Structures are given as C-alpha cells and as structure tokens.
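User: Just a sanity check before I run the rest of the batch. Below are the structure tokens for the first item. I only need the designed sequence back.
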C-alpha cells in the first residue's frame, strides 16, 4: 500500500515540477477503481482530495467506464439545439444554412467522434436535426426536396458536400487503428494497446470478444481497412511475420 501511495504522490510531484501547475485539493477529485478501502481512505486523507465517481465530464466529453449511452450524449444534442435556436432571429438563405451545417454543426459531432463510436440513436437524432434545419431553417415550414443520402454527395456529383456523419465517425475512429498499425510508440495510448491488448498478436488477429465495449467496437472497423492497406515486404522491422497482412492469403497464423 505504501509503495502505491508513494508512486501516486511522486507522479503528482513530477507533474508539478515539469509543468509548474499545482493541484488545488478543493477543486480536485480522486476517482479510484477496484482499490482496497484502506488504500482509498489513505490517499483521500493524505492528499486532501474529495472522492469522485464516474461518469464525469472532462473538456466537454464524458469520462465513463461502461458503454457510451444515448443519455451520455445528450450534451452533444443540446449544443446543436442551442446553436440552431440562436439563429432564429437571423434571416438565413439555403446556401447559408448549408455552410453553417458544414462549418459549425458538423464540427460539434467531430469533437465527439474523435473520442467515441457514437450510438446509432445519437447519429439518427443528429441527422434529424440537420435535415430539419437544412430544409426548414428555424421556421415550421418546408419539406425535404431530396433524400438525405443525396446531400452527402460531392458538389461535382450533384450533392451539397455535407459529410456523412456516420461514415465520418467510423473514419475518425479508424485513425486510431491506423496509429496502432503504424506502431506509433510516441502515443501513450498506442503503447498501452500494444503492450496490454495485443501482446503477442497484431491488430488483425487479436480477438474482438474481450476488452471494453469501445475497444470491441473499434476492432469491428478493422475489416474496412484491409482493402485500403498495402504491405510492402522489407526488412520486417515494423511488421509481424505471423500476424500482419503482408501475404495475399492473410495472416500466416490463421
């Protein structure tokens, strides 16, 4: 117990030394998972922190230990609703609404989509709000002129160039898989994934039935990357002979 407390205290002291930032016990909370009650009580008493519990919000996003729910994502929908409501007193043309969707409303989703695979219910609610704002604006009149899928097309192809938010979410999450494939060891998260989740496997052969919900959902996207990645045989330093997709038949281990 003493060793754990020492390491925790040393980490805070090191952070203070390197950053010049000091913790404020009155504004700080300590969230402890699966720790003995004696260790928890000792840390809280010594550090002077209050005990916190998940979920909490950090930089506008929920920190959770379970599956992301529709309720967890309500702040995202509320932010979109608030911004649309704020435009009620502004006379916006159709082209103006298109631009606001592209530059403002979609950016709210991007901020969340980088960190989470959003529930389908939230994606549907977002599309409903974007569709209503596009065709009706802030009034109660107006109706869809074309199917919503048509607005996703490029302008050169007859669409409006609005991003498909479901595909965008998957693409942004796939970037995390790409970082693991490249073995970007400058990322603490990638290093943790390689050491803890993959171990002797690769991103292509690790089982998708273990780990947190977010990790399993992320692994479900790897098949869409297979056709987009081409391996060139080199010296073998950055690939696994048995587990990577360098061979046309797939991982040799299988």
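Assistant: Here's the designed sequence for the first item:
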């Amino acid at each position: 117990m003493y060793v754990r407390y020492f390491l925790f205290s040393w980490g805070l002291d090191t952070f203070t030394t390197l950053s010049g930032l000091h913790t404020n016990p009155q504004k700080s909370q300590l969230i402890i998972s699966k720790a003995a009650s004696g260790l928890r009580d000792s840390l809280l008493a010594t550090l002077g922190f209050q005990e916190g519990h998940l979920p909490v919000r950090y930089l506008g996003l929920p920190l959770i230990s379970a599956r992301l729910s529709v309720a967890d994502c309500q702040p995202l929908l509320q932010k979109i609703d608030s911004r649309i409501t704020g435009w009620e007193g502004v006379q916006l043309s159709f082209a103006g609404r298109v631009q606001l969707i592209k530059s403002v409303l979609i950016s709210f989703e991007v901020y969340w989509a980088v960190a989470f695979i959003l529930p389908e219910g939230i994606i549907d609610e977002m599309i409903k709000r974007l569709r209503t704002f596009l065709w009706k604006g802030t009034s109660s009149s107006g109706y869809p002129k074309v199917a919503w899928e048509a607005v996703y097309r490029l302008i050169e192809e007859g669409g409006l160039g609005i991003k498909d938010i479901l595909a965008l979410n998957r693409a942004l999450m796939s970037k995390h898989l790409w970082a693991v494939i490249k073995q970007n060891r400058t990322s603490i998260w990638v290093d943790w994934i390689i050491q803890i989740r993959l171990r002797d496997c690769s991103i292509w052969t690790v089982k998708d039935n273990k780990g947190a919900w977010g990790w399993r959902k992320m692994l479900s996207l790897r098949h869409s990357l297979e056709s987009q990645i081409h391996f060139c045989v080199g010296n073998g330093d950055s690939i696994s002979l048995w587990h990577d997709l360098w061979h046309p038949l797939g991982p040799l281990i299988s």
